[in-house]
Amino acid sequence: MVGVSYGTFSILLEKLQISFLEYQNEQLTRKRGKKSSLILANQLLLTMLYLRNYDTLLNIGFQFGIGESYAQKRYTFTKMLLLRCLNLPDEASLKDTHYETYSRNKCRNKKNFKNS
Asked: Which residues contact 72 (CB under 8 A, 6 or more apart)?
């Protein structure tokens, strides 16, 4: 559905969680306020669906049970975190990234990585 295997998705999610914790720890005020209604895995899935299918955020938001504006907010935030954790310069390189190749090359020595 999003063009990556479950193993690659879980590696991207792990990197995203680390990047999210680093982002929160940069400023203490980022830990305040209401927490997101979407877990980080769903935010990653939402972002990958948008990058893969170029569907409207209204339709993607409907799939996740959220509004269009909140889907835009979560997409923008998750995209920013992905660019950070993958060390990519801009969104165009995020769209052109081959996640399968990236995860196999970067995580070849991980014990929990399984080739799918």
From this structure: 57
Task: Please list the pLDDT of the chain residue by residue as tens digits (116 residues).
Answer: 677 888 888 999 999 999 998 888 887 777 777 887 889 999 999 998 998 888 889 999 999 999 999 999 999 999 999 888 888 877 777 666 655 444 444 444 444 444 43
pTM reported for the whole predicted model: 0.74
Q: What angle do helix axes 68-85 and 6-26 make, rounded to 10 degrees?
A: 90
Q: How far apart are CA 94 and CA 66, in angstroms?
A: 24
| φ, ψ dihedrals at 14, nearest 5° | -60, -45
